[in-house]
Amino acid sequence: MDGGMELKGCVCRIKNCAGQLLSMEEDLVTDLDDDSWDLVLRDIRLKATFLYIDLSRVISRSENDERRKALTLLANKFFYCMDELGDAVTSRSISVMKMCYNDTAEALREVVAALAPPQ
């Protein structure tokens, strides 16, 4: 497979998954039943896994060291926030979850912005 096409696919999946995560806010702030909490946690973990794989590919194929370092820092911040969000969902604390979700959403927006082609 063409490396450029693979990277475009990774970036496309990252943006798609980011859109899905950013649209989950309403699901996270409502009163959920036990099964819904588990589904939300699984969904967050699944999205984090796909994002990890695709971000790793984008970072490893970046030809510019500065861009690679910047993307790595942003990705690390995002995955830290995702872990915190997962912990908040596990604790079922809506107030903590709102705070963690906001941090995660901001970190994700930074990652997506950094993936934009350089001007």
From TrEMBL:
Any one GO biological process: photosynthetic electron transport chain
Gene3D superfamilies: Oxygen-evolving enhancer protein 3 (PsbQ), four-helix up-down bundle (1.20.120.290)
Listed GO MF terms: calcium ion binding
The keyword Plastid appears for this protein: yes
Name of the protein in its database record: Uncharacterized protein
Species per Swiss-Prot/TrEMBL record: Lolium multiflorum (Italian ryegrass)
Any single GO CC term annotated in Swiss-Prot or TrEMBL for this entry: extrinsic component of membrane
Family membership: Belongs to the PsbQ family.
Annotated Pfam families: PsbQ
Subcellular location: Plastid, Chloroplast thylakoid membrane
Membrane-spanning intervals of the chain: none
UniProt-listed InterPro entries: PsbQ-like_dom_sf, PSII_PsbQ, PSII_PsbQ_pln
Keyword line: Chloroplast, Membrane, Plastid, Thylakoid, Transit peptide
Keyword Chaperone: no
Domain of life where this protein originates: Eukaryota
Coiled-coil intervals, chain numbering: none
